[in-house]
Amino acid sequence: MELGGIIKNKMAEKLKVKKVGISLAIVSGILYIACALLVAIAPEFTTNLFSNIFHGIDITQIITTSISLGSIVIGLIEIIIYAYITGALFAWVYNKIK
């Protein structure tokens, strides 16, 4: 009986690769959309916010606040794909370390 409990506990510690990938992809997609909305609603605030995140680097030379819907959709697709791959790799590596 004890052995069965140990095996169940070990299985519970493993991450499901696909679920972690999908979870990170969903969260990243939501954050990307929130960021795009923030740029549309308050471009100056967003520029200042990201300048602070990048340790005061002046990003005004490289940032654009006029973004087309098509570029937002392409960016969203890209971030979802990258996040899924990152989450899946994270879970796979985590499971290998365990």
Q: How would you describe this structure to a colleague?
A:
By secondary structure, the protein is mostly helical. It has one domain. It has four helices and no strands. It has helices spanning about 1-15, 15-40, 45-55, 70-95. Helix 2 (about 15-40) crosses helix 3 (about 45-55) and helix 2 (about 15-40) runs antiparallel to helix 4 (about 70-95). The longest helix has 29 residues, at about 70-95. The protein is elongated. The model has no long low-confidence stretch (mean pLDDT about 85).
Q: Which descriptors would you attach to this protein?
A:
98 residues, mainly alpha, elongated
Overview in brief:
The protein is an all-alpha fold. The protein has helices at 2-13, 17-41, 43-53, 69-97. It has four helices and no strands.
Shape: elongated
Our count of helices gives 4
- Tally of structural domains: 1
What is the distance, rounded to the nearest whole angstrom, between the alpha carbons of the first and last residues?
23 Å
Poorly predicted ranges = none
DSSP summary, beta strand count? 0
Binned strand content: under 5%
Topology:
Elements: H1 2-13, H2 17-41, H3 43-53, H4 69-97
